[in-house]
Amino acid sequence: MKTDTPVTIRRGDYAPPAYLVDEVALEFRLDPAATLVRARLALRRNPAAAPDAPLRLDGEGLQLVEARLDGAVLPPDRCRIGEDGALTLLDPPAAGVLETLVRIAPESNTALSGLYTSGGNYYTQCEAEGFRRITFFPDRPDVMSRYEVTITADRTLCPVLLSNGNPAGSGLGDGNTHWARWVDPHPKPSYLFALVAGDLVNVADRFTTRSGREVALNIWVRRGDEDRCGHAMDSLKRSMAWDEQVFGLEYDLDVFNIAAVSDFNMGAMENKGLNVFNTKYVLASPESATDGDWQGIETVVAHEYFHNWTGNRVTCRDWFQLSLKEGLTVFRDQEFSADMGSRAVKRIRDVRGLRAAQFPEDAGPMAHPVRPDSYIEIDNFYTPTVYQKGAEVVRLIHTRIGPAAFRRGMDLYIARNDNQAVTIEDFVAAMQEASGIDLSAFMGWYDQAGTPELAAEDRYDPEARRYTLTLRQSTPPTPGQPAKRPLPIPVAMGLLGPDGAALPTRLAGENAAQSGTRTLLLEAAEQSFTFEDVPAPPVPSLLRSFSAPVRLQGVPREQLRFLAVHDSDPFVRWESGQQYAASVMLEMVAAAQRGEAPGFDPALAEAVANTLAAAEADPAFAAEALSLPGEGFLADQMAVADPVAIHRVRQGLRAEIGRRCGPALRAAYGSLAETGPYRIDGRSIGRRALRNACLGYLVAAGDAALAKAQFDAATNMTDSLAALSLLADAATPAREEALAAFHARWRGDALVLDKWFSIQAMADRPDAIEAMRQLYAHPDFDLRNPNRARALIGAFAAGNPAHFHAESGEGYRFLADAVIALDPINGSIAARLIGPLGQWRRQAPSRGALMRRELQRVLDTPNLSKGTFEKASKALL
Ligand code: ARG
Ligand code: ZN
């Protein structure tokens, strides 16, 4: 029953395109069932390609109506559509104008790649390979063209007609139609093409660039959503100003449009001059969006805007270079958010995210370098490794050469590569030239998968007042890369004296005094650093600000406790507290596995009390410090994970802390109550986070009524949802009452309804699987909507480890059933959701066998999408 094995694309096989397309004219006549697309391509043979290379245009599911070359109809024996849907022109000229007319059906496009409809409106998603589902084209990022787009549609159904670039005319057409033309003066690859049309309304604003260019800003939404665009617009204007100030980069068109759509595979897309966004990253009001949602909007709006230079003006030669634009743009949005709020808290959250998603990926069957070597389905490589680890690697370079050289490097990178499709080497070369520092070894970070492990050993000689720090690195093997080499690891560090004060950090051979944070560069597998004139035996503070994406191991518990209180670096203070708690909790898990009572370390309650006492200075930081390490973080540190034991231990510990610190938690909870109107500044967000962290402990200790009272009184989504998610775990009638009230109030709001599904999917209930099956059958559940599918299925598999990994294997079966049902509808989302089953090697053999059985069942499904095939088959290797 097996269909052909999908082909593997390899980085080493890159060849330049046979033909280039200088100009493209597209004409759309929109219709849900039969849209016509006429494309005129000015083609010419690429001087860099073989002179006899065939003219082949990608296509997928296109119905060809006619093809002409320089005006003459091409007979069927000169153009052939292959098995894969691509069009090959036999006997091609060296240059010419190829015109094709194709028919497509956007209303039946459930994959949401190419041109599709959502709520009766038209949207496109072309990255990575969606343009070939719209017209025949060399659909690869190294073919850059200037686009002119004319859209014709019914005036009543589609009053708004948008595409990339600047508006260039509009008018009435035949019947009840009208048309609009858009011209994008900047050459771009096909993945940045966009079209949006339909009955939309806009929120408008303006931005004046620093050289005086007036830019019209618009956010396009469905009628009724206009009053929830303010934060996205404000984030956009701040992003535009920040990129001018920090990187000297100005916007380059007369208009910048954002369109929001509720059916969208990813977060958002940076199409030139016409970003398309998941509504989740546009719409927000205090009643309907959490503080996390507000921060997500700011980040994603900035990210897509920053792509205008890092991605659009300078793009990728091929998809293996994806991190060239994604890693760099994530780095830029992280820096933006750090500048907008608390840098330390932002760093802590980013590291939390990296560890929750990227570290496990690096330790699993899909582990791949930041620049992968091969893929079957490129959609599967929009990963935490390419994005978040890619950003960490850019940060390594930033740390290594310093901010001033980094800025010069960016200027050089853009000046030299503007309007070109380039590689990661081009980026590193610019940084190297601008800094004069040899960065060749840093390429290892792009090409080697796996998370390096870092260990320290030290020795103090009181006589000589000399301190020697020895650092060692090693990286465990990953699929296809059995042997690893050492990588350059910048280790930002300091030394603390017995009272916590900073000690000098002058290395042997240096003359000038050094104090505060300095950065050591570990280049070999093992290296020693000798510090002179150290007056007392120091405690080393390593990896300040998380200066490299590595696992620092084996720091003794006494040092962790000391650093958590005394270090000057907020990241290390937070980190040391987390590592201390993690080491205690892992011991408790081991005790629980032996059937012993887990015991309690009073230091954990002390830490909570100390955090609360000092919380006023920085409530957001206190909230981070108060949160115990997550279940995934703990599982990731066990040779064989035990998700059920981890969950029980963590819950039990929360209850114990809640009991022991009850009065202090209650006092903090009371004093943090909001007075006055809802505000979303950093301090207010921090206070809410801290207050809800306190609530969590108090409810764990038995006070479910407090959660119900907060839920009933809440005037913002953050407080409402925090209370509801705690109630969802509680065995009290208030649970059903609150869930029903929430559903009744929000049933008309898709984004909030997603939260209602997620909370239940993550709930710790004895009947969790049965509840999942009921939610799956709920009239409001819709497998076709990616947000809804993620809210239920994704939240369960990734956010409810204790029940996903239920001994019975029912959790695995539920996920596999959902993936099999979803795959024919939207293979991209199905492939994403299957991920957690790939982690079977980390589970006990009994669980692993059940997981493999479900992976095999998915793999045996006929006509599986390429993407799901790749994930399931690689997981089983
Ligand atoms: N370039 C987009 C972003 O990160 C993501 C688009 C990914 N699309 C996909 N089908 N994989 O901003
Ligand atoms: Zn991006």
Structure notes:
- This is Aminopeptidase N.
- This protein is an alpha+beta fold.
- Among the domains are: 191 residues, Sandwich (Immunoglobulin-like); 134 residues, Neutral Protease Domain 2 (Neutral Protease, domain 2), CATH 1.10.390; 89 residues, Immunoglobulin-like (Sandwich), CATH 2.60.40.1840; 131 residues, Zincin-like fold.
- Helices cover 40% and strands 21% of the residues.
- The strands form 9 sheets. It has an 8-stranded mixed beta sheet, with no helix packed on it. A 5-stranded mixed beta sheet has the order 17-18-19-21-20, covered by helices on one side. A 5-stranded mixed beta sheet has the order 29-31-26-25-33, with no helix packed on it.
- Strand 7 and strand 8 form a beta hairpin.
- Helix 4 packs across helix 5 and helix 17 runs antiparallel to helix 18.
- The radius of gyration is 28 Å and the shape is globular.
- The chain binds arginine (ARG) and zinc ion.
Short description:
By secondary structure, this protein is α+β, with helices and mostly antiparallel strands. Among the domains are: 9-199, tricorn interacting facor f3 domain (Immunoglobulin-like, Sandwich); 314-447, Neutral Protease, domain 2 (Orthogonal Bundle), CATH 1.10.390.10; 453-509 and 517-548, Aminopeptidase N, middle-beta domain (Immunoglobulin-like); 747-877, Alpha Horseshoe (Zincin-like fold), CATH 1.25.50. The strands form 9 sheets. An 8-stranded mixed beta sheet has the order 6-5-9-3-2-12-15-14, with no helix packed on it. A 5-stranded mixed beta sheet has the order 17-18-19-21-20, with helices on one face.
